[in-house]
Amino acid sequence: MKFTGENIVKFADQFTNDMECNAYLADKKWADGFSCVKCGHTKFTVRKKNLARDCNRCHHIESPTAGTIFHKLRFGMRKAFGIVFEMSASTKGLSSSQVAKRYEISRQTAWAFMHRVRIAMQSSKKNPIVGQVQVDEFVFGGKETLKQGRSRDSKKKKIVGAVELSSTGKVKRAYFKKIEDYSSRSLKKIFEDHISENAHVMTDQWKGYIPLSKEYTIEQRYSDNGGSMKQLHTLIHQLKSWLRSTYSWVHKEHIEKYLDEYSFRINRSIYKETIFDTLIRRMVNRQPITYQMIKIST
User: Fold this and answer.
1) Which of 24, 51, 136, 248 reaches 20 to 30 Å from 187, CA-CA?
2) Cα(43)–Cα(84) distance, rounded to whole angstroms?
3) Which pTM does this prediction carry?
């Protein structure tokens, strides 16, 4: 069972009620077979009400949502699936205020669930970039100026981005991380998480990259106000436009979740047919996330 495509009419036709969503979720959760979390028994009976598995040995009952990001969902599964579909298939995404109105849920509930989806969008960090890479930092928020150089404005969010290029110079993958400052220690985070030591990295002449050249192959060029790294700065411009046009305010503590959402869609732009299914599987494989965990996460 796999939903493919970006057609919202096709999506609505396939998921007409909560039961159909539960069936899809159960298919992903127990794709490799059922094993009772209490006793390990593999035989079960399906409960008709919500397709939960009732262990034939100890009679522990496990629902399709248990142990997943959908655990203790405060609204219907059909609404949840609709939000996941729009966050994955839509190029521009939605704000929590828009989602609250469209799905008739509270803004706080929409905000919390959308952050759970964004957490599932986080990179596994298992496939570092090995080819041509462009790396640079930028700021978001506050008043924009035409002044060149690295902003020290505390109101602005500092971000470092990395883009992997194909042999023809097209964007293959992109990653972004929040940084506290422009030191080598802060900049190294994106290298450690997403860039292989075998990659060829191009960046500007900022001194913070010099210590990293001991571990990575780094070519430093004159920035030309971003002109020497057009692909990366095009994405940066698009990212800023998306954040400004969609969200009234992005808190510093949560900026990286929005960056993960943007990267998730960019990195799967050629796999749009299966992007919804991929995200549902990720949400099934993630442990439940409480509201408090979202509030204190950075």
Assistant:
1) 248
2) 31
3) 0.91
Helix (H, G, I), strand (E, B) or coil at 189: helix
Instruction: Name the residue among 209, 173, 162 with its Cα closest to residue 188.
Output: 209
Nearest to 230 by CA among 170, 145, 152: 170
- The model's pLDDT over 213-268, given as tens digits with 9 standing for 90+, comes to 999 999 999 988 878 899 999 999 999 999 999 887 888 889 999 999 999 999 99
Closest C-alpha to 121, from 263, 9, 26, 225: 263
Distance CA 6, CA 197 (A): 37
Q: What tokens appear for 288 in the block?
A: 């439940």
Q: How far is CA 209 from the centre of its chain?
A: 27
Which of 177-195 are b and which e, b meaning 16 or more Cβ less than 10 Å from the residue's Cβ? bbbeebeeebbbebbeebb
Contact 268, 279 (CB under 8 A): no
Question: Measuring CA to CA, which residue among 28, 70, 35, 69 is closest to residue 53?
Answer: 35
Both tokens assigned to 144: 């924009």
